[in-house]
Structures are given as structure tokens and as C-alpha cells.
Inverse folding.
């Protein structure tokens, strides 16, 4: 999200635009004079500045000088009444300045805020291709995914994305929306995040007074995604008894707000996602069969990162470029570290890779200008998986399993023996006896 | 002293700008929060800005009508 400095002497415009941008999730600071803006320019680390050309005590261009002195990644837009001012200012300040022509609308603002300094700053742009504006990777398996996105984008079919956690399901959903060139919005919601009581209201909206606490009319997500894409993440976490309601909307293509009397037409593509494999969805009855077939007209499997390790160098490059832009630095990676990243299995997928790089970036060696990886790359989730897989297998003695269970429990509880005994369902005394016997065994073995 | 035509045109663009941005804000407010009270306040700003815009257009019209009249007066004085 952008960090914006907004300068305009028209207070009504200033207030409304600040409100609008904040509602879109950006951080905004407003100023109504050159003097005020100059003070703010020094104090904040802005990504974007929107400047009115004519201010009571000077021009927005005066603010520009103060802003440019300390921040080379800043994107600047001048608010002008007429497009003809463009060529005049361009001669003075170069082509990197953008323009917002009055009357300004959301489309102009969004187009400006989507721009990053990468386009205007040679050397900062890594030149990595982002497929459909979201996806990075050139491996054969990703090429197949791109082809599927392209194919489905030309149709109206509902898509179900199946992939492990962190594999980029929301990015793929956004790519489908991007490729569809839909007129409406991309509306992502997480079905696992809603309480059972509120999920219907979130999906279908409600009229004022429909239930206690419904003080205003609220549109549902189907309405918000009209002519666009509705992304239902973690669809398998939706309570099974509420699924018929969703099915009804998908079948009738009509939605009625809670407490409402008239039905509204629904026209949006529904992209749903789950991290459960299809056989598990069917086996555990996580989705009604009829709903599954409505949602999964076109299922797409997103490959886990370990199946496209060739893409790791590209992804690393992409994330480091992003971080360098964010922190205005030039941190790189050593060849051997890149090799280590390529060797690891990434159970948390691209999300885990990004987090690992961010941490290593913060810990970077400023002397060499390279990121510093931890000695062992490991996520708590991968450890859990390893422990679970290694726990019980044919040929192990009961004693071994018991010992492993006690040790793992203690490890997870940071050595708290009292809690471990409670969790294991044994007395503290028994736990101590067991631990003592292990110590004695170790001593005997050595 | 009467204001120049370009200054009057500039003065019309400002309320239009406020109308445009408030319309976007109203739309987003209803879509995202459904806060009707806030939306009503936004629409009131839009109505006030429309009236201001209308006033400015009248001023501009008057100024444009005055200009040829002043020119005729000057010509008559010269002759």
C-alpha cells in the first residue's frame, strides 16, 4: 500500500480525497500550503506525492524540490486543470512526473498509485516478467498454468484452485481476473474467517433492520463483485449447512439481501480455492457434491514450489528487487546462499520463501551488501511434518515411540515439564522417572 | 474589478473536482461500509458544490456578456 503526501489548498477536496485513499488502505498525510507540505516532506518516507500546482503561498513545484532532495523512489503527480500544462512542466522536470486532470476520479488515482518507481528508475527494475501482472516463474509447469489461465479467462466458467498453503492461490485468482479484462472489481474473501452467524450477511448483504445490529443496509460480496470476480478462499471451511445458500445463488444467479424482498441479478465469475486435495474434500465431505460441481467447472492445480525449483532464482530476484525498492537499498545474495535456497523443499511454498528472504534482508551484512540467511532454513510447520512422519513406523519399539513423544512434547512446550505431564496424561513424577531413565540409558550407551 | 475569464474557468473546475471525488467516496462508502449517514453527508457536499458551480457559471456568463458591451463602449468613445 502507498504512503502518500497530498497537497491541495481546496480543503473539501483534500478531506474527501484523504478519506477515499485511506478507505482504499493507503496511508495519507494532507497539507494545504507549500510551507506545511515542506515540513511534512522532510518528516515522512513517501512513496507517492499528489501536488496541486497553484497553492496560496507558491506552487506544488516548490514542494517537489523538497521531496526530491531526500527520496529518489518517489512517484509524483501534479493536479492540473488542463492537459496543456503537461508539456510545460515536462520541459522543466522531465517525463517522470505524472498528471491528474481535474475533475479527478478513482480510475486516475488508481492508475497513478499502481505506478512504482521501477518504471522511472533505470537499474532498479530487474526486468522480471510478471505474467498477468501477478505471477513470476518461467518453468514448464508454470507455463502450463499460464495456458490454463488464458484459456479460462475467455469463458465465464467458475474456477476452483487447488494448491498447498502459500502456493499463491490469491495471486492466481487475481491473474484470472486480470486476464478476463472484467469491468467489475476483484473481491477476495476468506470463507474460514467469518463466523457462522455473519457469513450469510457477508455473502448476500442485508437490509437495514434485518437483524439486531443491522443499523445500515449493507451490500454482499456478490454485489460488490458485480461484472468482476468473486474469490472465495478456503471454500472448504464454509460450514456445510450454509452451503445450500451459496449453491442457490450460483444456480439462480440471483441474490436476495437478508431481510430484503427483491432479488438482484448476479453477474460475476466465482473463483474458489482450497488447500485440501480433491479426494480429501470428497472423503471428508467438506463440500456438498452439487456445490463442488458448480464451483469446480474448471479446476486448476497450483504447483507447490518444490515442484518448480527452477523458478527459485527468479523469485528471489523478484523479492529482493521489491525489498530494495521498499528500503531504498541495493542488497544482493551470494551464490552459495542462492544454492541453499534452491536445495530447500519449502513446505510453506512461495510465502515461506518471501518471509525467509525478508528476514535475511533485515539481517543483511551491510559491509558486503548481501542478505544473511539463518544457519538452518526451517519453518515450524516443516518440523511438525517431519516429526509426524518420523513418529511411528513399522519396527519401532513402544519405548522408542514413548520417548520421542515425551521429547517432542517438551520441545513444543519449551521444556515446561508440568505442562508436558498434563498434556501427556501422566503424573509429573512419572515424567521425571522416564526422563531419568533416558539419561541413564544415554550414560550406559556412552 | 472583474476577474479574468481564465480565473473564472479555474474556479469552476474546483467544485467539479470536489463533486467527482466525493461521488467516488460516496460510492466506496456504501460499497465497503454501508454507512448511510456518512453517505448522506457526502451527497450534501456534492449538492452544495453543484450550487457553487452553478453560481460560478453565472459569473462567467455575466463576464462574457460584459466584455463585448465594454468593447462597444470603448469604440463609441473613440469615435
Amino acid at each position: 500500500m502507498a504512503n502518500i503526501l497530498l497537497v491541495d489548498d481546496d480543503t473539501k477536496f483534500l478531506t474527501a480525497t484523504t478519506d477515499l485513499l485511506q478507505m482504499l488502505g493507503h496511508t495519507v498525510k494532507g497539507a494545504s500550503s507549500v510551507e506545511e507540505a515542506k515540513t511534512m516532506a522532510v518528516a515522512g518516507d513517501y512513496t507517492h506525492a499528489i501536488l496541486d500546482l497553484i497553492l496560496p503561498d507558491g506552487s506544488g513545484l516548490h514542494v517537489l524540490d523538497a521531496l526530491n532532495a531526500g527520496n529518489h523512489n518517489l512517484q509524483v503527480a501534479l493536479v492540473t486543470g488542463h492537459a496543456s500544462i503537461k508539456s510545460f512542466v515536462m520541459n522543466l522536470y522531465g517525463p517522470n512526473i505524472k498528471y491528474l486532470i481535474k475533475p479527478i476520479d478513482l480510475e486516475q488515482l488508481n492508475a497513478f498509485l499502481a505506478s512504482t518507481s521501477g518504471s522511472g528508475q533505470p537499474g532498479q527494475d530487474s526486468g522480471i516478467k510478471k505474467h498477468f501482472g501477478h505471477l513470476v516463474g518461467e518453468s514448464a509447469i508454470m507455463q502450463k498454468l499460464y495456458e490454463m489461465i488464458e484459456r479460462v479467462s475467455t469463458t465465464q466458467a467458475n474456477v476452483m484452485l487447488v494448491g498447498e498453503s502459500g502456493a499463491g492461490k490469491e495471486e492466481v485468482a487475481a491473474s484470472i481476473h486480470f486476464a478476463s479484462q472484467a469491468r467489475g472489481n476483484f473481491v477476495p474473501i476468506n470463507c474460514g474467517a467469518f463466523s457462522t452467524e455473519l457469513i450469510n450477511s457477508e455473502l448476500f448483504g442485508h437490509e437495514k433492520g434485518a437483524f439486531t445490529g443491522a443499523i445500515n443496509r449493507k451490500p454482499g460480496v456478490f454485489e460488490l463483485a458485480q461484472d468482476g470476480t468473486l474469490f472465495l478462499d478456503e471454500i472448504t471451511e464454509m460450514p456445510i449447512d450454509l452451503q445450500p445458500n451459496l449453491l442457490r445463488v450460483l444456480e439462480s444467479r440471483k441474490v436476495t439481501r437478508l431481510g430484503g424482498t427483491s432479488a438482484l441479478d448476479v453477474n460475476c465469475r466465482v473463483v474458489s480455492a482450497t488447500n485440501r486435495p480433491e479426494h480429501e474434500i470428497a472423503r471428508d465431505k467438506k463440500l456438498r457434491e452439487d456445490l463442488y460441481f458448480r464451483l469446480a467447472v474448471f479446476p486448476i492445480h497450483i504447483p507447490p514450489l518444490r515442484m518448480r525449483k527452477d523458478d527459485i532464482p527468479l523469485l528471489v530476484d523478484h523479492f529482493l528487487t521489491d525489498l530494495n525498492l521498499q528500503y531504498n537499498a541495493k542488497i544482493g545474495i551470494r551464490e552459495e546462499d542462492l544454492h541453499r535456497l534452491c536445495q530447500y523443499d519449502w513446505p510453506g511454498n512461495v510465502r515461506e520463501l518471501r518471509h525467509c528472504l525478508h528476514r535475511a534482508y533485515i539481517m543483511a551484512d551491510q559491509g558486503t551488501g548481501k542478505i544473511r540467511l539463518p544457519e538452518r532454513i526451517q519453518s515450524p510447520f516443516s518440523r511438525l511434518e517431519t516429526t509426524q512422519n518420523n513418529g511411528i513406523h513399522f519396527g519401532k519399539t513402544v519405548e522408542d515411540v514413548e520417548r520421542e513423544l515425551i521429547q517432542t512434547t517438551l520441545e513444543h512446550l519449551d521444556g515446561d515439564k508440568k505442562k508436558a505431564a498434563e498434556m501427556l496424561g501422566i503424573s509429573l513424577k512419572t515424567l521425571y522417572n522416564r526422563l531419568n531413565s533416558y539419561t541413564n540409558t544415554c550414560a550406559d550407551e556412552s | 474589478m472583474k476577474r479574468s475569464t481564465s480565473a473564472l474557468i479555474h474556479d469552476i473546475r474546483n467544485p467539479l473536482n470536489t463533486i467527482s471525488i466525493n461521488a467516488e467516496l460516496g460510492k466506496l462508502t456504501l460499497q465497503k461500509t454501508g454507512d448511510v449517514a456518512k453517505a448522506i453527508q457526502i451527497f450534501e457536499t456534492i449538492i452544495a458544490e453543484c450550487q457553487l458551480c452553478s453560481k460560478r457559471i453565472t459569473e462567467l456568463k455575466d463576464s462574457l456578456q460584459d466584455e463585448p458591451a465594454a468593447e462597444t463602449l470603448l469604440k463609441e468613445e473613440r469615435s
In short: The radius of gyration of chain B is 19 Å. Chain B has one domain: 5-78. The mean pLDDT of chain B is 81. The domain at 5-78 of chain B is CATH 1.10.287 (Helix Hairpins).
